[in-house]
Amino acid sequence: MEPWIPVTIAAAFLQNARSALQKSLKGRLSNAGATYVRFLFGVVFVAAYLGGLMLYLDEPLPEMRSDFFYLGGVGALAQVLGTAALLQAVSLRSFAVGTAFSKTEPLQAAAFGFIILGEPVGDTGVLALVVSLVGVVILALSRMEISVEAFSKLVFDRGAGMGLASGALFGIAAVCFRGASLSLVTEGGVFLRAGFTLLSVIVFQTLVMTIYLFYREPDEFKKVRSVWRPATLVGASGAFASVGWFTAMTMYNAAYVRAVGQLELVFALAASWFFFRERISPLELGGMAAVVGGVVLLVMQG
């Protein structure tokens, strides 16, 4: 098994943990405030990780080229805007529908990866991405009652468009992060490239969100201070999940990494069955099988 695969699976698991922890902040912070703590409290952990890595490898900071700045900047903004688009999508439709359309990210990342970085995806890769996407959509919509007429309306709904937009923005972000990381000049290897790129991106995102909150939601700063304990856990889990994502995307094609990362949904469903004894329907089992099948195809190709 190539190293990017277990790194991606670990990142998906940690992201699932971060999402669960972030739910504890619901109602105490706005959507923007909850997003802000993910960046603000994650900076310290990412900085500590990069510092420890540099000491261990005995390597200086990588040398940055112009590609790094515009790819990293575009990726950072795309991720923030993608989060905003997803929040808008789920407010216009249900959470499941918004999530389902946003999960077109790996397929869109494959297209953007070819356009931006010139990285092709073979026939098997496309098949694997499509199979995995079908599984994700089944999982996201499995507990909804959707008729043919309702589904046709859903496809042309504004919420669906925002979900697709969020998937496109997340796909652009993933590809740009990979490109920024690969543009660095260093002898420190994959981990140093990924760690430095992540720290640069998360600092920039924190600054952007700070400016946004200052002008649009200044009261959120006081609320953020009041929830610093759970926010620290959100920041830590999010930071190490991001370390996994950035490292895996530096190692391998971003579209494949994000597709394997769809296992996050399988983890969430398995946790709901194991810990809360929630019943899993045959349709959900079929969705899980499709997601896993798509991942297996990607692993076999990789």
Structure commentary:
The longest helix is centred in the last third of the chain and has 28 residues, at 189-216. The termini are close together. The chain contains 14 helices and no strands. The mean pLDDT is 84. By secondary structure, it is mainly α. The radius of gyration is 19 Å and the shape is globular. The chain has one domain (4-301). It has helices spanning 4-22, 31-57, 66-92, 95-102, 105-117, 123-141, 148-155, 158-183, 189-216, 220-226, 228-251, 254-260, 263-276, 282-301. Helix 2 packs antiparallel against helix 9, helix 3 (66-92) runs antiparallel to helix 8 (158-183) and helix 5 (105-117) runs antiparallel to helix 12.
- The residue ranges in which pLDDT falls below 50 over 5 or more consecutive positions are none
By helix and strand content, what is the structural category? mainly alpha
Give the strand tally.
0
Please report the number of helical segments: 14
C-alpha termini separation: 9 Å
For the CA atoms, what is the radius of gyration? 19 Å
Strand content: under 5%
Largest sheet: none
Shape: globular
Order of helices and strands: HHHHHHHHHHHHHH
Number of domains: 1
Q: Which bin fits the share of residues in helices?
A: over 70%
- Average pLDDT metric: 84
Describe, in short, the structure shown.
This protein has 302 residues and is mainly alpha-helical. It has one domain (4-301).
